[in-house]
Predict the structure.
Amino acid sequence: MTQEFKPKWLDTPQVRDIAAAFDKAGAALWFVGGCVRNSLIGSVATDIDAATDAVPDNIIQIAEDAGLKAIPTGIEHGTITVVSEGVPIEITTFRKDVATDGRRAVVSFSTDIAEDAQRRDFTMNALYLSSEGYLADPCGTGLDDLKARKVRFIGVPEARIREDYLRILRYFRFFAWYGDPAEGVDPEALSAIAELQEGLDQISSERIGAEIRKLLLAIDPVPAAAAMAQCGVLGRLLPGAGIGLLGPFVHLESEAGFAPEMIARLVALGGENPADRLRLSRAEQKSYKSLIAALERDEVSHEAAGYRLGAHVARQRELLRRASMGAPLDKVALEKIEVGAKQIFLLKAADLPDGFSGPEIGEALRQAEELWIESGFSLDRATLLEKLL
């Protein structure tokens, strides 16, 4: 515990208030997990989590004595959410596993930070930061692994995976976000994952979907997806899926300056019934089906695609099609899509002359719209009406 590290969030009034309450009570308080890991690599720390040697009832008492709100969000697992001026921090008592079944663990409370570290998944997630700004690395390699971008299981990979089979997917997700593609995945980890992947059958579709979403939103998920395919996990989760289209699509997406888009990347992976297997939301299912349908459409121009499909779907369609052909990015096509997406049809039913009624109105408007699109949106209202007569 010799390295000093003080991210900005450590000195916010809310964090200081909570830290002061534990200090006053003589209880240890260590910030741990993503907030420490992300801060060390200069990334955004979102949720702030902490661990303590105080048991849950004492956590509640410490918070209330300091005038802070305490919410027993996971008291049976040792977790209390303490809130200071609207800022929540999940604080969990040091724990050690008593028994595991591949998904859930029976735990007992501990006062030893080293025991708490040993039950976590990866060394980079077992870095602790004191309220005074000192780092602790109980596993001994977490800080070095984080700097080297090495995603490493704590202890023996097989043992960590048997404790919770969801860690298989967490491994690939963390590799996608924090790993070094040049070094590749840890061979020992990949071997254990290949041997134990049947354990994924115990994991709910919701949890699998959540991990795949996060993985696909990494800047470049291709190396992680390739490792998943190599050991059989990708095919297990999405039969028929492959990375052949994903790589070119991600490259084009990046070249175009677009943010990572989960649904389009899922389409690029292919595979059977992703909506069911990953338990996509209704909105996600709608987006997925819209993009699949768009890929099957033929449009007279890029402008027409933008107008009919909307800019977002038309852009993804364009990139997926070019990726499937191994073609380079066409920035002019993307510009034309934007032009088309901004067009507003000139005619309404009230604009039609007398003589059109019932179904004839809809058909006339459809014909006029087709003429307008084919003209590159150049025909004016008068010309369109003239062509209908």
In short: The radius of gyration is 27 Å. The longest strand covers residues 87-93. Strands lie at 29-32, 48-52, 69-74, 79-84, 87-93, 95-100, 105-109, 128-130, 135-136.
